[in-house]
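Example noted here:
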Amino acid sequence: MADLTGEAVALLDHLGVGKTHVLGTSLGGFVAQELALVRPDLVDRLVLVCTSYGGRGPQAMSPGALADMMGVGTFSAEAAARKALAAATGEAYRAEKPEEFERIVRWRLADSPSVVSYYEQAKAGARFDLSGDVGHITSPTLVIHGAEDRYVPPANARALAEAIPGARLQMLEDAGHLVFVERFADVNREVVRFLRSGTTGARETGRGAGDGAVGEASPEAGGWLWRSTGSVRGWVARTMAAMWAFLGFRD
């Protein structure tokens, strides 16, 4: 994990962007936390999505979820990918967007990681443990999590938000580990709201937060996002591109 964090630091230093907002999903959330600790001068606001502080944590992935993620009991790459993606998403998403689900399955099959890459990612994730250090993060932090996450059970998100001083937890119903895909409009809105708010405060919210019910995204949500200020709009565009790239590897 130190290597990945070092690469992130090197890139930010090379680009000369200075202090910036950082968002990390799943394994990328590990990198984002470590970055906020080793180079707080580079991290303005921190957004952690479907992740944890590692270590033993309050609740481990169940044996069944691990078996599904690894495609145990399947006899083809396609069946394994479909089983893993089903375990990574909520029931509502699979029922409401079957075409999109199949499109992501095909995408993952077309750009699967090598066995070595998969192993190294899994090893880095298994060894990661910031349980004793995450409380030293000073950046204002938003934690977003899917209430049906089987890969990183929600108890881990609650523990993460409680461990980071002043962090806020947004738990989104009807979503699993890929909450940023399943409920992308809601995640977008929460991220932009947080980046523009200038305030923090440890609290947990469910389907809705602030002035609107986030669980029921309006048709105008996307338009509102892209009418936001230029700096935030550009940052979110880059962030969402990175999120989609994340789907190219298994957690």
